[in-house]
Amino acid sequence: MNITRNTTDNLSAVISITLAKADYQEKVDNVLNQYRKTASIKGFRKGQVPMSFVKKQYGDAVVFDTVNELLQKSVTEYINEEKLSILGNPIPVIKDAIDWNAEELTFDFEIGLAPEFDVDLSKIEVESLKVAVADEEVQKYVDNFSQRFGSLKSLEAAEEGAILKVDQAVNGEEAKASFIRIEDLKDASAFIGKKVGDIVEVNSKDIYDTAEEATQNLGTEVSEEGVNISITIKEINTVAKAEVNQELFDKVYGEGAVDSEEAFRNKIKEESENMYNKEADKQIINDVVAALLENTSFELPKEFLTKWLTFSNEQITSEEQAAEELAKMEKSLRYQLIEAKIAEVNNVEVNAEEVKEAAVVAIKEQLKMYGQTSIPEESMNQIIAGALSNQEEYNRLSYQVFTDKMLAIFKENVKLNEKEVTFDEFVEIITKKNEELAEA
């Protein structure tokens, strides 16, 4: 076997592979011998079919499969050994006719080469938002926790904030048990002051904003005209907020994690700022990416990529269509190359242990959202193992670890202009930036 590479221009080349019969004939003979043992041809006993018959019937197909397998393996090994950075995949050059009985066979593969370029992060300058959480914002969280960990309290009559257990009959059909939250209704006036046992007759349009909302709450299809509902009140409750004391602190953060209201509020403030600043970090990444795309220039092997898209994608039926598709993906492709270059220069790698650690953090945060702050180690290990066994979830966590490492590199090398903002200002800035990104 002989492999050569001819560069056609700076960003494309042709790999030529010449195979002698000796490179593949032994494997072809072995396959044909297996066929001979099992072939069933009229006039011959099984296993006694002459090899000439077997070669006539299966020879060309076996040579084709064997050669094709050898070519794919050889091209891949050559690219790896030569440390070629390619875009897309090698494209076989189609030949009009191939003499499979020739002593030598030569095949060509076109490849697109990744461009050479440098990335200078020190020239990038972006804004870094720092969110300062006000006392009013902290109080909203305190109220939310008090509500979430509160207890049900019976009421004599329905009032604002009440939760009603009811039986609902739609257009005279059999009543179905459900719950109604007064605060969720479009107009709750028909319920205010009602007591257990009272029946409220309304049209769905009176209490629900849309037909879709009515359908979801009633469990039956509702048109825009609405339906008549007969609602029998079975229970009237409200949520009595939990007191802001040690019992609430323990429920929110785990036993003994905080020991005073001041520490509780400080913990909320710290976590809130961390959460908002994580969003600010995402914006740093977005801004750095935009700046890198604007400031890092290099050519792409567009002619090759257009041909590769046409060859590899059955949905693309012309070079014009492929060119349009390439234009759509060019920005993403350029950043992938820039990102790969930064990762290579900074030796960024992600290992299984780091992915596991990320899974632990993500699962604990998710469980905490549901008030579960203390999970037995065995149960936690099972949850973690389940998450890591899901390939899609593993890939997501792996990319998150990679992104965190890239963010650290950006923060260390890019010029960050810190700007302290309120939560409302932060939302306004991020919303505007996202709208600009969507329009780009």
UniProtKB/TrEMBL annotation:
Offer a single GO CC term for the protein: cytoplasm
Q: Where in the cell is it found?
A: Cytoplasm
Principal localization reads cytoplasm
Q: Which reaction does it catalyse?
A: [protein]-peptidylproline (omega=180) = [protein]-peptidylproline (omega=0)
- An MF annotation (GO) of this entry: protein folding chaperone
Q: Which residues form the signal peptide?
A: none
On the tree of life, the source organism's domain of life is Bacteria
What PANTHER family does this protein's entry cite? TRIGGER FACTOR CHAPERONE AND PEPTIDYL-PROLYL CIS/TRANS ISOMERASE, TRIGGER FACTOR-LIKE PROTEIN TIG, CHLOROPLASTIC
What InterPro entries does UniProt report for this protein, alphabetically? Trig_fac, Trigger_fac_C, Trigger_fac_C_sf, Trigger_fac_ribosome-bd_bac, Trigger_fac_ribosome-bd_sf, Trigger_fact/SurA_dom_sf
Top EC group: isomerase
> Which gene underlies this protein?
tig
Per UniProt, which keywords does this protein have?
A: Chaperone, Isomerase, Rotamase
Q: Is Isomerase a UniProt keyword of this protein?
A: yes
In the record, the note on similarity to other proteins reads: Belongs to the FKBP-type PPIase family. Tig subfamily.
Protein name in the entry: Trigger factor
Question: Where does the record place the Trigger factor ribosome-binding bacterial domain?
Answer: 1-144
Q: Which organism is it from?
A: Faecalibacter macacae
Q: Where is the Trigger factor C-terminal domain?
A: 262-371
For this entry, list what GO says about its biological process.
'de novo' cotranslational protein folding; protein transport; protein unfolding
| EC number assigned by the record | 5.2.1.8
Indicate whether Methyltransferase appears among the record's keywords: no
